[in-house]
Amino acid sequence: QVQLVESGGGLVQVGGSLRLSCAASSRINAMGWFRQAPGTQRELVAGTTRVGIITYASSVKGRFTLSRNNARNTIYLQMNSLKPEDTAVYYCAADRVAISATPEFWGQGTQVTVSS
Question: Are 21 and 33 in contact, with CB atoms under 8 Å apart?
């Protein structure tokens, strides 16, 4: 079993920045971030593997940057130029091979609120 511990998130104004972190309790190949706004389905924001393959949702490309520290089993999501539509609960997720639509492991979620 892999535990995921998230940190970061909070309240920020439009155009501001936030950084999320997620630490895994043990080595695992694929890690990423999903988000879910009220009344919507959970969606993949960005995902990465240990060899550095990174994918982004089109809605965040150019604004969000996902990075990884394999030695610490940790990923970081730097979110810049935040918009009100980025408001959601952000969940860290992990899979043994590649990030799927239904990852095996989940964090508890952290709220990101972008105010206008």
Answer: no
* SS3 annotation, 58-93: CCCCCCEEEEEEHHHCEEEEEECCCCHHHCEEEEEE
Length of the chain (residues):
116
Residue 35's SS3 state is: strand
Distance CA 2, CA 61 (A): 28
Q: How far is CA 77 from CA 16, 47, 60, 110, in A?
A: 14, 10, 11, 12
Q: Is the pLDDT of residue 52 over 90?
A: no
Give percent of the chain above pLDDT 90. Answer: 91
How far apart CA 116 and CA 107 sit, in angstroms, is 28
Cβ atoms 95, 104 nearer than 8 A: yes
Q: Is the pLDDT of residue 28 over 90?
A: yes
Which of 33-42, 46-55, 67-76, 82-91 has the least mean pLDDT? 46-55
